[in-house]
Design a protein that fits this description.
Layout (H helix, E strand, L loop, with lengths): L8 H8 L5 H8 L11 H8 L4 H14 L3 H13 L1 H13 L1 H9 L12 H4 L3 H8 L5 H20 L5 H26 L1 H6 E7 L1 H4 L9 E9 L11 H20 L10 E2 L12 E2 L1 H10 L3 H7 L3 E5 L1 H15 L8 H14 L17 H15 L11 H10 L5 H25 L10 H10 L6 H19 L2 H12 L10 H10 L5 H12 L4 H18 L4 H15 L5 H7 L1 H12 L3 H8 L20 H14 L3 H28 L10 H32 L5 E7 L1 H4 L9 E9 L5 H20 L9 E2 L12 E3 H10 L3 H6 L4 E5 L1 H15 L7 H17 L18 H15 L11 H10 L5 H25 L10 H10 L7 H24 L1
Parallel strand pairs: 2-3, 2-4, 7-8, 7-9
Antiparallel strand pairs: 1-2, 1-5, 6-7, 6-10
Helix pairs in contact: 1-2, 2-4, 4-6, 4-7, 5-6, 6-10, 9-11, 10-11, 11-14, 15-17, 18-19, 19-20, 20-21, 21-23, 22-23, 24-26, 24-27, 25-26, 26-28, 27-28, 27-30, 28-30, 29-30, 30-33, 31-33, 32-33, 32-34, 33-34, 34-36, 41-42, 41-45, 42-43, 43-44, 43-45
Length: 1003
């Protein structure tokens, strides 16, 4: 008897053998069922070797309790102690699967299925499983027989007799035998239907690929034909035959799927058939062929990789495969083939609930599906010319890809190991309760059992999580590189004797990845990656990833070409490749920028050292700099310069660098990266670009003004001089290609003759405009002063008094309208403040606008729409002047400002979105209408920004070139092949906005 407060020796031994509840285990061992063997060390050792000793012991007691009599119980115990194979198998299953323990408790004699230990029993096939199911004569007995066969697979799996690939193959063979048995039951129930038709069952998915899970839908496709008479001609018409075949197929599916007293086997899923669940369940072979030739999508050919006849008429099944397999290997020739497959993979990831992403073994990043998609994509690209790749099994296909040089051997070995580990995890998770799940459990006990089942006996939970994360990281890192690394091996040719992609295979892969000129692309790769220098070695490390990012763009050829140009310019600098290799964001940011269009690469090529801005360290990053900081830098550059030309050259260099920073940040925010998702608030992106470019333009003008004054007059100009921003400049809404709309104002200093002051002011303006437009490597800044009084006919520069006199006597409605955007941007700040105070009563009149003025504004708007729209342009797609475009929204908002700005302080702003929000706050426009106008304005602005980024020149309409249009689509969030969706979205958005404009502006 154990003394109070002291643990028994049994308790201690149980702890040492892995029991987590030794007290409960001790009570079970002391029970009558285990009395004959409770002290046998063999039993305790065997229980301790299982995944969950507590679960195994509990299952064993239940099995003993279920035996029909003491003799049967004694036979089980004697065999258990005497026969190590049975002991390992039975306890292994009981410790890993609560569901199979339940089955054994219900069918107490089925443990006998684990006694056999013969060579042929080690690797069972379809024939063995058919014999195991042969006595089943109804759905219930079929389920019992299926579980008995499943028991033998699980036993050999948990004992390590078969590996994960062999387990998956046996599960697929068992499914094949089960489908045949179910179809036989269906035919026996309706012999008249069976006589009318030939029916073939084609396995798809994991069953077709010989890699099934313990619990999974079994994907199938049905093919039916009329039965043949003895003479060989059809003796039933096609309609009746298909009706009979559909009845048999439906019954077969119910036999497997329906829940009975013995549960269900698994769902049979026929949704991979042509037209999915909307299509007929059974089709003739000719109907299948016609569908795949004409209507099938890329993913349907990918699914056919695993098609395998498993039940029914074997001849018809073979005909099906023979007819459709050639079509599978033509899929890579389809337009947008690789983007379609990659998009489907992204869509799968996007459908995972956020709470499950980090626990998803199958669908999450670094999961099983990543390996499967990558392998299937490479099979489809290269399988047309290489029949060795025609395998439906992932690991076999991966081995063939490595053997053919299509995948690097080291990469293939790492992926094989990771895939086997992840599939083992998936199998053991499902085996526990025989439930379909791909989620790693969160419960500590479940994780402990899972870790121990995989051989991790010391610290099973931390060890499991470390191994899982390590393998998932390998998959995540390698699954896209699989496409690109062999391309580098093919062009670099560094390791003699290694199997490489042939030139034709490399060309095929580049075409499949979206490269329009594969020969040029391969030349670029050869130039970048060949040789034994450190530079070439780093490039070979970087390029597999970069090529994937280029392929994700609308113009991968340009991305690769630009990367070569930048690398040629900077490759010998010590920091360039180190930046791309070591700073996580830099390489992806660069890839996105180089392949998104012309503007950003052009800016970068003029000063390649700006690539440092793309890093995520202390190099400045992509966050926009404020006006004060920019102005401080430009003025400092002017002070250091020797003369105005050199000074403005430096100022324009700052402008070029900051334009690149802004464009790069915009591209990264619009495309998204691994480190930074796509910016969800499109309005924030627009505001950021508009604010950054406007601040940069103001700082450029300030620096140029200082340089011109300093060269011509020293420290002080004879007249006070200020620059007023107008239009989009004053509204902080400049785009990449916008001119700077301004007014020039001056005021003679005390004692200075007015003519002398005016001459000085005009000279300053003329020199500023000249220096900012001198041809150079930096983009010019065009200054537009056409919004001044009297327009192009009026003087370029006026004194403040002249403006006051003009506006008092002669100002027109359009000029008051234009002054809504007037804001000081550079020069004498006090003079700028006095100018805005001068024009405030004009733009925010105390009495609002009279009816005549409102009519005049509407007339001007209508005239602008009819006269300024370019000939031949589609008005519905013109972002500036078309219905629902920028002009519509801005004039509507500005009319409200003119009418109500005096009374509503919030409307006294130069910014469109801020004024619209203030109008909504004041009740002048409903929230719904305000949201509609805001959405249209933001989208139209983004279209203009996109066109400039893509084409390198300003434009208000969508490009007609397909690649440029696709690039605009990518910037706006539309994937490959969805340019039409983008145009439809723009038309819808603009149409809704135009309805609001009609109500608010023209009513």
């Amino acid at each position: 008897m154990t003394a109070p407060g002291r643990r028994s020796s049994t308790f201690t031994r149980l702890l040492r053998h892995g029991f987590t509840d030794p007290s409960a285990a001790e009570r079970l061992l002391d029970g009558a069922e285990l009395a004959p063997v409770r002290n046998d060390p063999v039993l305790l050792e065997a229980l301790g070797a299982t995944a969950d000793p507590d679960l195994a012991l509990h299952g064993l007691v239940r099995l003993l309790e279920a035996q029909p009599d003491p003799t049967a119980r004694r036979e089980l115990l004697d065999t258990l102690i005497a026969a190590k194979p049975l002991r390992d198998r039975l306890l292994g299953v009981l410790g890993a699967s609560e569901a199979l323990a339940d089955h054994l408790a219900r069918h107490a004699g089925d443990w006998q299925a684990l006694v056999t230990y013969e060579p042929r029993d080690l690797h069972r096939g379809v024939d063995d499983f058919e014999r195991g199911l042969a006595e089943a004569d109804d759905p219930v007995s079929l389920r019992v027989a299926y579980r008995r066969c499943l028991l033998s697979i699980a036993a050999r799996d948990v004992c390590g007799t078969i590996d994960v690939a062999e387990t998956a193959a046996e599960l697929a063979d068992l499914a094949t035998a089960t489908l045949r048995a179910a179809l036989a039951l269906a035919e026996a129930a309706a012999p008249e239907d069976a006589a009318l038709c030939r029916l073939a069952v084609i396995a798809m998915g994991k069953c077709g690929g010989h890699e099934l899970n313990y619990v999974s839908d079994v994907d199938v496709i049905f093919v039916g034909e009329p039965a043949e008479s003895t003479a060989g001609s059809p003796h039933a018409d096609e309609t009746k035959a298909l009706r009979a075949a559909t009845s048999l197929a439906s019954h077969m599916m119910r036999i497997c799927s329906e829940t009975t007293v013995e549960g269900s086997i698994w769902p049979v899923d026929a949704n991979l058939r042509p037209e999915g669940r909307n299509g007929p369940l059974v089709r003739t072979l000719s109907s299948h062929v016609a569908y795949y030739q004409r209507w099938a999508k890329t993913w349907e050919f990918q699914a056919l990789l695993k098609a395998r006849p498993v039940a029914g008429d074997p001849g018809l099944g073979a005909e099906y495969v023979a007819a459709l397999q050639p079509l599978v290997w033509q899929a890579a020739d389809r337009e947008n083939f690789v983007p379609d497959v990659q998009k489907m993979r992204r869509r799968v990831v996007e459908t995972i609930p956020a709470a499950e992403v980090d626990r998803q073994l199958k669908l999450g990043p670094g999961g099983l599906r990543d390996v499967e998609f990558a392998v299937q994509l490479l099979q489809l690209v290269h399988g047309r010319a290489d029949t060795s790749l025609h395998s439906g099994t992932t690991l076999a296909a991966l081995e063939a890809l490595a053997a053919g040089g299509y995948v690097g051997r080291a990469d293939a070995a790492q992926l094989d190991e990771a895939y086997r580990f992840l599939r083992s995890m998936e199998h053991r998770i499902q085996l526990h309760r025989l439930r379909r799940t791909h989620l790693v459990p969160e419960d500590e006990a479940d994780l402990r059992r899972l870790g121990r089942s995989l051989g991790l006996r010391t610290d099973p939970v931390p060890g499991l999580l470390r191994a899982w994360k390590r393998h998932a990281s390998v998959v995540r890192r390698l699954h896209e590189k699989l496409f690109y690394r062999p391309l580098l091996d093919a062009v670099a040719q560094l390791a003699p004797g290694e199997v490489r992609l042939s030139a034709e295979a490399a060309r095929e892969r580049m075409v499949a990845l979206g490269y329009a000129d594969p020969a040029a692309a391969l030349r670029h790769l050869e130039a970048l990656a060949s040789g034994v220098t450190r530079k070439a070695a780093i490039q070979r490390t970087l390029l597999p990833v970069l090529l994937g990012w280029f392929a994700d763009s609308a113009d991968p050829d340009t991305g690769l070409l630009n990367f070569r140009k930048v690398s040629d310019a900077l490759g010998n600098t010590p920091w360039y490749l180190r930046l791309l290799r070591d700073e996580g964001a830099a390489a992806e940011n660069l890839a996105r920028v180089l392949s998104a269009g012309r503007l950003a690469p052009d800016l970068l090529m003029r000063a390649p050292e700006a690539v440092a801005l793309l890093g995520d360290g202390n190099s400045g990053g992509l966050a926009p700099r404020g006006r004060a900081q920019l102005e401080q830098e430009t003025l400092a550059a002017v002070r250091r310069a020797d003369g105005a030309v050199q000074a403005v050259t430096a100022v324009r260099g700052v402008r070029r660098r900051e334009l690149f920073r802004t464009a790069a940040a915009d591209i990264v925010g619009s495309y998204g990266t691994e480190a930074q998702p796509v910016e969800a608030d499109q309005g924030a992106l627009v505001d950021r670009v508009g604010g950054a470019v406007s601040d940069l333009t103001a700082a450029t003008l300030a620096g140029t003004l200082r340089a011109v004054v300093r060269e011509g007059w020293g420290d002080t100009l004879p007249t006070r001089f200020t620059i007023i921003g107008m239009g989009r400049f004053g509204g902080h809404e400049l785009g990449y290609g916008s001119d700077a709309d301004v007014l020039f104002v001056h005021e003679p200093r005390d004692g200075v003759d007015e003519r002398e002051a005016a001459d000085a002011a005009n000279k300053v303006v003329a020199e500023m405009r000249r220096l900012l437009q001198v041809p150079s490597a930096d983009p010019p800044l065009l200054i537009d002063a056409d919004l001044r009084p009297e327009g192009k006919s009026g003087p370029l520069v006026r004194t403040l008094k002249s403006y006051e006199a003009y506006y008092r006597r002669w100002s027109l409605v359009w000029e008051r309208h234009a002054l809504l955007r007037a804001e000081f941007v550079a020069g004498d700040e006090d003079l700028g403040r006095r100018f805005t105070e001068l024009v405030d009563p004009l733009r925010y009149p105390a009495d609002g606008l009279g009816d005549d003025a409102v009519r005049e504004i509407r007339r001007l708007k209508a005239r602008m729409e009819s006269e300024r729209l370019p000939r031949g342009a589609d008005p519905k797609l013109h972002a500036k002047l078309g219905p629902g475009g920028l002009s519509d929204v801005e004039w509507t908002v500005q009319l409200m400002q003119l009418r109500h700005g005096h009374a509503e302080a919030g409307l006294r702003t130069t910014r469109t979105r801020a004024a619209l929000a203030a109008a909504c706050e004041a009740g002048l426009v409903s929230e719904e209408h305000a949201a509609t106008l805001d959405e249209a304005w933001v989208l139209a602005t983004r279209v203009r920004n996109a066109v400039m980024l893509v084409r390198g020149r300003a434009g208000d309409t969508f490009p007609t070139d397909p690649r440029e249009l696709a690039a605009v689509g990518r910037y706006l969030g539309h994937g490959p092949g969805h340019a039409g969706d983008m145009l439809d979205e723009y038309r819808r958005t603009a149409r809704r906005a135009r309805v609001v404009v009609e109500e608010l502006f023209y009513a």
